[in-house]
């Protein structure tokens, strides 16, 4: 089946504070798709966040391409071809990665690395998030949701996706339901243990109430 249909990857970006899935892309695990994914993600944000990911090098390359300035070297006055401009990454770009070492299928060690930015600034930014450490646990937890809610993503099953078109359509609905319809347990549970339904979209102040399925399907921008 893999030879006939190929292997497809789902790229997702989640805001750890609101649990909102900001964007996703279904495609290949290539540098081109990484750039498309990051470009769309950045276009939806008003400021540079703290970026955290696994060690796939495409993220570093994509962020470097989108947040840099070209500095032209001073002329030397000597003959020959002038030096190429130097690429300087923006000082306010913060990006860290997580590396997991596995042994016999179990994680035995987790290491973090600051790729762009300073460790002290990243530590300060983490204080305002639900986690005080660099990690990818929120994305990993959402991956479990997708496998539970979308039969196309279940492992070792005959329900795996056989059409990119239908996979994209179905996953779009799954993400929309996650963001707008289904209350998030952590967001909804109050300090006194009472439960007030709150979706990621409500936490991100995109709406003031959990949507119904009819409201979601009839909303113009969702249907476009």
Which structural class matches the secondary elements? alpha+beta
Largest sheet: 3 strands, mixed
Strand content: 15-25%
Shape: globular
Spatial order of the strands forming the largest sheet: 3-6-7
Low-confidence regions: none
Gap between N and C termini: 32 Å
Helix content: 25-40%
Number of β-strand runs: 7
Mean pLDDT reading: 88
The total count of helices amounts to 10
Secondary-structure element order, N to C: HEEHEHEEEEHHHHHHH
**Rg for CA atoms:** 21 Å
If you had to describe this structure to a student in words, what would you say it looks like?
By secondary structure, this protein is an alpha+beta fold. Helix content is 38%, strand content 21%. The chain has ten helices and seven strands. The chain has helices at 2-5, 31-43, 57-66, 119-126, 137-149, 164-181, 185-188, 200-203, 213-218, 220-223; strands spanning 9-14, 21-27, 50-53, 68-71, 86-89, 94-103, 106-116. The strands form three sheets. The protein has a three-stranded mixed β-sheet, covered by helices on one side. A two-stranded antiparallel ribbon has the order 1-2. Helix 2 (31-43) crosses helix 3. The protein starts with a helix and ends with a helix. The model has no long low-confidence stretch (mean pLDDT 88).
């Amino acid at each position: 089946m893999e030879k006939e249909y190929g292997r497809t990857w789902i790229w997702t970006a989640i805001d750890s504070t609101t649990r909102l899935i900001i964007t996703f892309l279904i495609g290949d695990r290539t540098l081109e798709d990484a750039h498309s994914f990051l470009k769309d993600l950045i276009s939806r944000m008003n400021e540079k966040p703290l970026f955290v990911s696994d060690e796939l090098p495409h993220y570093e390359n994509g962020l470097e391409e989108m947040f840099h300035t070209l500095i032209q070297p001073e002329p030397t006055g000597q003959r020959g071809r002038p030096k190429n401009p130097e690429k300087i990454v923006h000082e306010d770009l913060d990006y860290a990665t997580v590396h997991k070492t596995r042994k016999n299928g179990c994680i035995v060690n987790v290491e973090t690395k600051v790729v762009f930015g300073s460790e002290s600034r990243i530590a300060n930014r983490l204080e305002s998030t639900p986690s005080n450490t660099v990690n990818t646990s929120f994305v990993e937890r959402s991956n479990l949701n997708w496998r539970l809610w979308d039969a196309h993503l279940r492992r070792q099953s005959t329900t795996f996706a056989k059409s990119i078109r239908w996979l994209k359509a179905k996953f779009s609905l799954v993400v929309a339901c996650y963001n707008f319809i289904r209350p998030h347990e952590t967001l909804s549970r109050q300090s006194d243990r009472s439960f007030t339904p709150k979706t990621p979209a409500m936490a991100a102040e995109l709406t003031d109430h959990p949507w119904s399925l009819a409201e979601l399907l009839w909303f113009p921008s969702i249907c476009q």
